Automatic annotation (TrEMBL), chain B:
This is Unannotated protein. It comes from freshwater metagenome. It is found in: Cell membrane. The chain crosses the membrane at residues 30-52, 91-114, 121-145, 169-192, 274-294. Keywords: Cell membrane, Membrane, Transmembrane, Transmembrane helix, Transport. Residues 1-23 are annotated as: Disordered. The keyword Transmembrane helix applies. Its main location: membrane.
Length: 401, 303
C-alpha cells in the first residue's frame, strides 16, 4: 500500500511541480504513467516492449528482473537519458516524453553514485539547486545533509567517504530537488550485505518521510520486496506481473515469476475438472486440487506450483496437518540444515526432486538421506501455471546475486 | 635547454620517494636512485653549470682567443637591452600557438574521447602519425603550403581576405600557424588522456540535476579535464617558446624569435657568453612562468 494520503500531502510541496491546473486532466493523482513505451536499439534489440505502467503519486515501485530485462532502460527513459522509440511518458499530468533530461522534474540515484569528484559533498548536494537558481541553498543543503546524517562531512570530497556514505550523498543530491519521481538505479549494488540491509530500511524510511514517488530498479528480489509497495517483475522487455510483494510471491502468474521470486516446485499435471472454486488436476496419478483463482491456465495441462516452505514432510502414513493434497512415496535424497530450517530434496516416484523447507520448530525430527517420506500441502497454497511455459524460466536469474 | 627545464621537477619526485624504515631498504633505495642521479649530474647539472659559467664570461673574448671569467653580470643587462623584442616575440608567438592548439586540440580530443566510438584508436594513431616524418620536413612542407603561389594564398586572395600582393610566408601568421601545427599532438594527447578518464555518467548526472548540456560541460567536463589542459599547455608552450625552426623557415627577419638570436650568437657571431646569458634567461623565465601557472591552476587538488 502507498503511504497514507496525508504523508504525501504534508511532504514538502515540490517546487518543481508544474503550474496550477495540470494534473487534473490526466489520472486522479498525477503520478507517473508509461503508455506503450518501447525502446528498440539500432542493432534491432528491443530492450523494452510496449510497456504500460501506472505509478501513483507517493508510492514506491520496484522494477525487478534479471540483467537485460529492460528495467534500467525503462528507468533511463523516465530520466530522459534514453529516447523511447515509441510510446509516451506522462508525469504529474504533463507529457514529458519530448523533454530533455535537464528539463524533467525527475532525479536519479545512479548505480555507483556518479558523484562529482571535483566538488565537495556540500557542492554535490547543492548542484541541482544551483542550476535551478533556487534560493536558500545553504539551509536546504544543511537540512538535507542532516537527514542523511552527513552534516559533519560537508567539506570532504566524495573519494574521502566510505561506500555507504557516498550512497547517502547520492541520495541527498537527488532528494534535495524534491523531484516528482526519484529514480534509483541499483543504488545498493556496490554495498556489502549488512550495509545493504540497513540502507534498504533507511531509504524506505526516507521515502515515507518525504512522501515522494520512488522508482527503484534492482535484480535483487529480497531488496525489491522489502522496500517497495509495488513490484513489477520484468523479463524480456515486458512486465510479467505487477503487484504487492506478498501477492506476487503467493500467487505468481508465470513460471518466471514463480522461480525468480523465491523458489517453487513445479510439477506437471493434467486438468480433470474445473469449478468456480476449485480446479482438480491429475498429478502423476494423484488427484490434487488448486483454487481456481490461482489457476492461470485454460489448457489441458498445467504446472502445479507449490513453495518449498508450504510443503510439509512426514513419515510414511503420518497424519499431516494438510488436508487435501497428500503425495506418498518420496525418498529423501539430500538434507541441508541451515539453522532456521532444514532444506530437503525429496525424490518422487515419477523421478522429480521436490524442495521442502521445514521450519526448525522442534516439533518434527530431522529426516536422513534415504528415508521414505510423505509430502503434503494445503490446496489453497498451490497455484497452477501454463504448461507451455518453461519450468526453468528465471531459475538461474533468481539465484545469482 | 627546454629539456633541462622539465628535468627540475623530476629530481623532486625522486627525492620524495618513500624510504623504508629498515636500513637495508634505505640503502637499496639510494642504489636504485644512482643511475638517475648520475644521468642528471652528467646531462643536467654539469651542462647547466657550464652554461651559467659561460654566461658570466667576459663578452669581449671569442671562441678562438678564449674567454676570461669576469663574473660579467652585466651580460644579462646587455642582452635584455639588446634582445627584449625577440624575447617578447617568442613568448607572444608561443602563447598564441598554445591558445590555438588548446581550442583545436580540445575539440579534437573531446571528439575522440566521447564521440569516436570504435574509431577512437585509429584517430589517435592519426594524431601521432606526423611524428613519423621529421620535424624539419614537416616545417619545410608548410613553406610549400603557405607559399605565394600555393593554394592557401590563392584561395584567400580569391576570397579577398588577402590583397593581391599580400602573402602568408614571412608573416607572424605563418610562424604561429607552423608552431600550432607542430605542437598540436602535444596538446591533444594529454587532453585525450584526461577526457577519456571522465565517467560519462557524471555528465548524465549533471543533466539529471537540471544542468543544460553547456552548463554541464562547464561545471563537470571542463574542471575534470583541467589536468590535461595544464599539462597540454605546458607541453606546447615550453617547446614553442624555445623553438626557432618555425621562425627560421616560415618567418622573415621581422619574426626573429629568441631561439634565432641564440643560434645566431652562438654559431654565426661566435659570442658564447651572450648566447649563454640568453639561454639562462629564457630558462629561468619559463620555469618561473610554469611555476606561477601550475600554482594558479591548482590542479593538484583534482588528484
Amino acid at each position: 500500500m502507498p503511504p497514507s494520503a496525508d504523508t504525501a500531502a504534508t511532504g514538502a510541496p515540490a517546487p518543481a511541480a508544474p503550474g496550477p491546473g495540470s494534473g487534473a486532466h490526466d489520472g486522479p493523482d498525477g503520478g507517473l504513467r508509461l503508455s506503450s513505451l518501447t525502446k528498440r536499439y539500432a542493432n534491432g534489440f528491443t530492450a523494452v516492449h510496449d510497456l504500460d505502467l501506472d505509478v501513483p503519486r507517493g508510492s514506491f515501485i520496484a522494477l525487478l528482473g534479471p540483467s537485460g530485462c529492460g528495467k534500467t532502460t525503462t528507468l533511463r527513459m523516465v530520466a530522459g537519458l534514453e529516447v523511447p522509440t515509441s510510446g509516451r511518458i506522462t508525469l504529474a499530468g504533463q507529457d514529458i516524453t519530448d523533454r530533455r533530461a535537464h528539463q524533467r522534474p525527475v532525479n536519479t540515484v545512479f548505480q555507483n553514485y556518479a558523484l562529482f569528484p571535483h566538488l565537495d559533498i556540500y557542492e554535490n548536494v547543492a548542484f541541482g539547486l544551483r542550476r535551478r537558481k533556487v534560493r536558500d541553498v545553504e539551509s536546504k543543503v544543511r537540512a538535507m545533509l542532516e537527514l542523511v546524517e552527513l552534516d559533519s562531512q560537508a567539506r570532504k570530497r566524495p573519494a574521502q567517504l566510505s561506500g555507504g556514505q557516498q550512497q547517502r550523498v547520492a541520495l541527498a543530491r537527488a532528494l534535495i530537488n524534491e523531484p516528482e519521481v526519484l529514480l534509483l538505479d541499483e543504488p545498493l549494488g556496490a554495498l556489502d550485505l549488512k550495509l545493504r540491509r540497513s540502507m534498504q530500511i533507511e531509504i524506505k524510511r526516507i521515502q515515507v518521510e518525504v512522501g515522494l514517488t520512488f522508482m527503484h530498479v534492482t535484480h535483487d528480489q529480497e531488496e525489491a520486496m522489502t522496500m517497495a509497495d509495488t513490484v513489477a517483475v520484468m523479463n524480456g522487455g515486458v512486465i510479467e506481473q505487477l503487484g504487492a510483494p506478498a501477492e506476487l510471491y503467493e500467487n505468481p502468474r508465470s513460471t518466471f515469476v514463480a522461480n525468480f521470486l523465491g523458489q517453487s516446485n513445479l510439477i506437471e499435471g493434467r486438468v480433470l475438472s474445473r469449478s468456480a472454486d476449485v480446479t482438480t488436476l491429475d498429478m502423476h496419478g494423484i488427484t490434487v486440487s488448486v483454487p481456481t483463482a490461482r489457476t492461470h491456465t485454460d489448457g489441458e495441462g498445467g504446472w502445479i506450483g507449490i513453495r518449498p516452505e508450504k510443503v510439509l514432510i512426514g513419515e510414511e502414513g503420518a497424519d499431516l496437518d494438510a488436508p487435501g493434497n497428500t503425495v506418498p512415496g518420496g525418498v529423501v535424497s539430500d538434507v541441508s540444515f541451515v539453522g532456521v530450517s532444514t532444506q530437503y530434496l525429496v525424490r518422487m516416484p515419477w523421478g522429480q526432486e521436490l524442495q521442502v523447507f521445514s521450519q526448525n520448530t522442534g516439533r518434527t525430527r530431522m529426516f536422513t538421506v534415504g528415508e521414505k517420506v510423505e509430502l503434503s500441502w494445503r490446496p489453497e497454497y498451490a497455484f497452477c501455471l501454463d504448461i507451455n511455459q518453461d519450468a526453468a524460466a528465471g531459475v538461474d536469474d533468481g539465484e545469482t546475486r | 635547454m627546454t629539456q633541462a627545464a622539465q628535468a627540475v621537477p623530476e629530481t623532486a619526485t625522486l627525492a620524495a620517494e618513500p624510504s623504508g624504515s629498515r636500513r637495508r631498504r634505505g640503502r637499496t633505495g639510494y642504489l636504485l636512485m644512482l643511475p638517475a642521479t648520475l644521468w642528471l649530474l652528467l646531462f643536467f647539472v654539469v651542462p647547466f653549470y657550464s652554461l651559467v659559467a659561460t654566461s658570466l664570461f667576459d663578452a669581449s673574448g671569442s671562441d678562438f682567443r678564449g674567454y676570461e671569467m669576469t663574473y660579467a653580470w652585466g651580460n644579462y643587462v646587455d642582452v635584455v637591452e639588446a634582445y627584449w623584442q625577440p624575447f617578447l616575440r617568442s613568448l607572444w608567438y608561443a602563447a598564441l600557438a598554445t591558445g590555438i592548439c588548446l581550442v583545436l586540440g580540445y575539440v579534437l580530443a573531446y571528439a575522440i574521447a566521447f564521440k569516436a566510438g570504435r574509431w577512437k584508436w585509429l584517430l589517435l594513431v592519426l594524431v601521432i602519425a606526423p611524428f613519423f616524418t621529421s620535424f624539419l620536413v614537416r616545417t619545410l612542407s608548410w613553406q610549400l603550403i603557405l607559399s605565394d603561389e600555393g593554394f592557401v594564398v590563392d584561395a584567400l586572395q580569391f576570397l579577398r581576405v588577402l590583397g593581391p600582393d599580400d602573402r602568408l610566408l614571412a608573416t607572424p601568421v605563418a610562424v604561429v600557424a607552423g608552431l600550432a601545427y607542430n605542437f598540436l599532438p602535444f596538446m591533444v594527447l594529454p587532453l585525450f588522456a584526461s577526457l577519456d578518464k571522465i565517467d560519462p555518467r557524471l555528465v548524465e548526472a549533471s543533466s539529471d540535476l537540471y544542468a543544460h548540456p553547456f552548463v554541464g560541460f562547464w561545471k563537470v567536463t571542463w574542471p575534470l579535464s583541467l589536468p590535461g589542459v595544464v599539462s597540454g599547455t605546458l607541453l606546447t608552450f615550453i617547446p614553442a617558446a624555445g623553438d626557432y625552426i618555425n621562425a627560421e623557415f616560415l618567418g622573415s627577419t621581422n619574426q626573429r624569435v629568441i631561439g634565432n638570436v641564440i643560434q645566431g650568437q652562438f654559431i654565426d657571431a661566435n659570442n658564447s657568453p651572450v648566447a649563454a646569458a640568453l639561454s639562462v634567461l629564457l630558462m629561468v623565465l619559463i620555469v618561473a612562468m610554469v611555476l606561477v601557472y601550475v600554482r594558479r591552476a591548482g590542479t593538484e587538488e583534482l588528484l
